[in-house]
Amino acid sequence: MKRMMVHYLLFSSLLFMVIGALFYANKPVEKDQYMEITVASGDTLWKLAKEYEDQHRLSTEEFINWVVDVNHLSGQRIIAGEKIVIPVLKSEEDRQLAVNQ
To answer: Three-state SS for 86?
Structure first.
């Protein structure tokens, strides 16, 4: 009986952690926390990833995938004049501007 109770508690704990992880993983990105930029002529997601690499901690591929997912892009192509959100926190932008002044 005691062994069965231990198994029940262990299973319940694991189930609780898995459900918590699913809720956390499915939490939508709050776009208002991130920088929104207007795409300039000649910009690519790869170039933007390199341009802002000091302000995010993602690989180029992770940066590109994040931008595509969050902005609901159909592919990796971006168009001049388009506004997109990039994975750079607005607080990071403010810190960078303060350092550059």
So the answer is: strand
Summarize pLDDT for 81-96 with one digit per residue, the tens.
999 999 999 886 555 5
Q: Is residue 74 part of a domain?
A: yes
CATH code for the domain of 70: 3.10.350.10
Closest CA to 68 of 83, 84, 90: 84
SS3 32: helix
Domain count, the chain: 1
Whole-model pTM: value is 0.65
Residue 31 neighbours by CB under 8 Å, 6+ apart = 70, 85
Query: Is 24 within the bounds of a domain?
Result: no
Structure tokens at 96: 């960078």
Which two structure tokens, joined as six digits, stand for 54?
């000091």
